[in-house]
Amino acid sequence: DVHILIQKAPQPLALVDVEAYAAALPKVINRYPLPNVALKGEATQSSTLSFATASKAIDGRRNSFYSNGFCSHTAEDETNPWWRVDLQRSFTITAVKVTNRGDCCAERLDGAEIRIGNSLENNGNNNPRCAVISHIPSGQAFYFPCNSVKGRYVTVFLPGSAKVLSLCEVEVYYGKYLQFFT
User: Fold this and answer.
1) pLDDT the model gives residue 114
2) N or C: which end of the chain has fewer CB within 10 A?
3) Rounded to an integer, what distance in angstroms lies between the CA atom of residue 136 and that of residue 131?
4) What torsion, rounded to 10 degrees, do the Cα atoms 141, 160, 55, 171 define?
5) Structural domain of residue 38, as residue ranges?
6) Number of domains the chain is built from
7) In this model, does residue 19 exceed pLDDT 60?
8) pLDDT exceeds cutoff 60 at 141
9) Where in this chain does the record put each Fucolectin tachylectin-4 pentraxin-1 domain (predicted)?
């Protein structure tokens, strides 16, 4: 089954750009015409390992190799590490795209939660949950639909002890979008 959903579209859908595939595809494929608002934000994280500052995850580069200096990274073996971007104002967020590390350790991101809201209580980790990252393969980027959650802060929170949080890119989208469900 294929379902096409347009939220608040000003005009009817033209099926000129629809492609059909026989092979299995990810559950959701999104196309976002609006800019990545995280690029103008300010990032912070619970701790920093070496040169891997929080801002590396919102620099606009999807390079997934930590050793090349393009990814954020918290300290080793931390309890409940988190990463957060302050978007400078509240947006109605429709999706977050996360690029996982490609040179090792893809499983480290498993179980991370994407949270969005206007509160900094508990470092933003108490804000409403947009998604849980079950797994992103090494070096891959996945979109997570957020059902139009409003917020200024987008937090990636990894619950548990002896954890490491590394993000190579986090993109935040708001507004109208076209979404295909396979």
Assistant:
1) 99
2) N
3) 13
4) 30
5) 34-175
6) 1
7) no
8) yes
9) 34-181
Ramachandran category for residue 54: left, alpha or beta (phi over 0 → left; psi -120 to 50 → alpha): alpha
Tens of pLDDT, residue by residue over 98-123, are 999 999 999 999 999 999 999 999 99
Task: Write out the two tokens for 12.
Answer: 């009817």
What's the CA gap between 72 and 163, in Å, rounded? 14
What does pTM read for this prediction?
0.79
Is residue 29 domain-resident?
no
What gap in Å lies between CA 84 and CA 115, rounded to an integer? 9
- 3 state DSSP class of 84: strand
Evaluate whether residue 101 is within a structural domain.
yes
CATH number at residue 96: 2.60.120.260
The Cα–Cα gap between 45 and 159 comes to 14
Average pLDDT over residues 4-13: 48
CB 31 within 8 A of CB 6: no
**Would residue 112 count as lying in a domain?**
yes
Q: How confident is the model at residue 179 (pLDDT cuts 50, 70, 90)?
A: low
Beta bridge partners of 158: none
Which residues, 6+ apart, have CB-to-CB distance to 68 below 8 Å? Answer: none
In the block, tokens 């954890």 appear at 163
| Contacts of 51 by beta carbon, 8 Å cutoff, 6+ apart | 69
- Match 């400078």 to its residue by tokens: 88
